[in-house]
Specification:
Elements lengths: L5 H21 L3 H12 L4 H26 L4 H22 L4 H21 L22 H11 L3 H11 L5 H25 L5 H22 L4 H27 L3
């Protein structure tokens, strides 16, 4: 961690504001944008980029989760075991992730981005079952915390992206309920992941915290603008952007290495 000059601080605040706005605009979370940006533009090791992005994400998730679940509450009998299982999975996997080779971790993150982009380009947003019937009994919903939490621990992001379609397609939840359940899963996971990455000295707090302040100021504006723009066009543009970013993350080491 290092002290920032006033000009650097203003630059980081501006960056956080931009990431918060685009996270709200695309409805997919600022972390997916922040992590590759920190890794590619700032030259951070992958684990450090993930930990620093978590410092930005946690306050935004806490505020967003509190607001969203007030409108779409989750029963405590579901929320508590879901959050506990997800947090335990996050903690265990994050312990491993902070010790992984940076190149391997970056490749895993790049592959994850490719899968998300392809899903956005070829699939539809899950709408949930019209009659509320799911394939699996909803008593098993807390188990979704295991893969969702593991994803958060390994990559610092993606728990909600993984969990939401499971809640809609497997358990027959409506999209709004599925998003509430995902926030119940992701919010404590992100805090656990941040603490774990921080203990491993994989968080640059002097960058992450100002980014969080900037993001909190603009995420609501991004959501407001999103409601005025064509959803399909935005999703396609964002999918192509993260697909291009993912391919660059995967191919950059090969390009720089050159022929042997």
């Amino acid at each position: 961690m290092h002290a920032l000059a006033i000009t650097d601080l203003l630059s980081i605040l501006t960056l956080g504001a931009a990431l918060g706005f685009f996270g709200g605009l695309f409805g997919i979370g600022g972390g997916i944008i922040a992590i590759p940006f920190l890794a590619l533009a700032f030259g951070m090791e992958q684990a450090l980029a993930q930990g620093t992005a978590l410092a930005m994400m946690v306050p935004i998730l806490i505020v967003g989760g509190w607001r969203y679940t007030r409108r779409h509450p989750v029963a405590p009998g579901t929320a508590l075991p879901l959050a506990m299982l997800a947090s335990a999975a996050t903690y265990g996997v994050a312990q491993v992730a902070t010790g992984l080779d940076s190149g391997l971790l970056r490749s895993l993150f790049g592959v994850f981005l490719v899968l998300i982009a392809l899903r956005m380009l070829t699939g539809r947003s899950p709408a949930g079952s019209a009659d509320g019937a799911g394939v699996v009994d909803r008593r098993w919903q807390p188990l979704v915390g295991l893969p969702g939490g593991a994803c958060m621990g390994l990559l610092g992001v993606g728990g909600g992206l993984l969990a939401t379609p499971i809640f809609t397609q497997v358990f027959g939840q409506r999209q709004t309920v599925a998003q509430s359940l995902s926030l119940v899963l992701v919010t404590p996971c992100s805090a656990v992941a941040l603490l774990t990455y921080g203990r491993a000295h994989q968080v640059d707090w002097s960058i992450g915290l100002p980014m969080a302040v900037g993001g909190l100021l603009t995420v609501s504006a991004g959501v407001a603008v999103a409601h005025r723009l064509p959803e399909r066009s935005m999703r396609l543009a964002f999918a192509w952007m993260i697909l291009t970013t993912a391919l660059w993350m995967l191919l950059k080491p090969l390009i720089l290495q050159g022929p042997s």
